[in-house]
Specification:
With 237 residues, the protein is of the alpha/beta class. It has a domain of 163 residues: Rossmann fold, CATH 3.40.50. Helices cover 38% and strands 26% of the residues. It has 10 helices and 10 strands. Strands 6-7-8-3-9-10 form a 6-stranded mixed β-sheet, with helices on both faces. It has a 4-stranded antiparallel β-sheet with strand order 2-1-4-5, with helices on one face. The structure holds adenosine-5'-triphosphate (ATP). Adenosine-5'-triphosphate binds next to strand 2 and helix 1. Keywords: Amino-acid transport, ATP-binding, Nucleotide-binding, Transport. Belongs to the ABC transporter superfamily. GO terms for molecular function: ATP binding. Pfam families: ABC_tran.
Amino acid sequence: MPLLELDRLAVNYGPIKAVRDLSLTVEAGEIVTVLGANGAGKSTSLQAIVGLLPVHHGSICFDGQNIAGQSTERIVRRGLTLTPEGRHIFAPLTVEENLKIGAATRSSAEEVSRQWDQMMELFPILASRKNQLAGTLSGGEQQQLAIARSLMSKPRLLLLDEPSLGLAPQVVELIFDLIGRLRDMGLTILLVEQNVHQALDIADRGYVVSGGTVVLQGTAAELKISPDVQKAYLGHA
Ligand code: ATP
């Protein structure tokens, strides 16, 4: 049984059908990437999965249970969390305060403290800046904070929406290195990315989305050599 299974998901903004009949699966332990042009419906899908947008039809099964229609809080408690595009950290709060907010769904103080220690180990830059205001961090540091904040809820499945957006090449490397380490630690990841090369290098499988639905799917190796992917996303004629 897949850890996450979307079956014919549809999400509308009023009359706009942003996601239509989108089906995909993510197995435990995998990194699955979702590729597609701007406006393809990638962010909309991720927001619907975590209950931030209503599902028009279709199902979202997480760990065997249909979570479509549940509150975001309940979904996060189940072990699914989203690091949104654009980070959305709380700029006027400190690094530490941002991380504590990420743990809001955890009730055991001991668990939160364990998670905090793990974040300080995984993100040394955040450890050294825990009293700094989040808004004064660099873009790469803010992205690390956004991911660490998501991890404070101790997810089993992490949804990452364009984590490398707007970052310098070296910082992009650092973020992808981190994603690899998270997978090695046992986390399952659904990754939306514009950096198609790096996304296919790190992912096990991928889906190409266009017009709100899946138009191509395969292993990362298959997608890398697909003429359609090469033409549209990898800059080959
Ligand atoms: P991007 O990488 O640019 O974010 P995307 O694949 O994530 O692209 P979505 O942001 O999911 O695409 O957008 C899917 C479609 O829904 C687009 O046609 C977009 O214009 C539309 N859309 C997105 N947000 C809204 C909104 N709040 N109201 C109305 N339409 C929206």
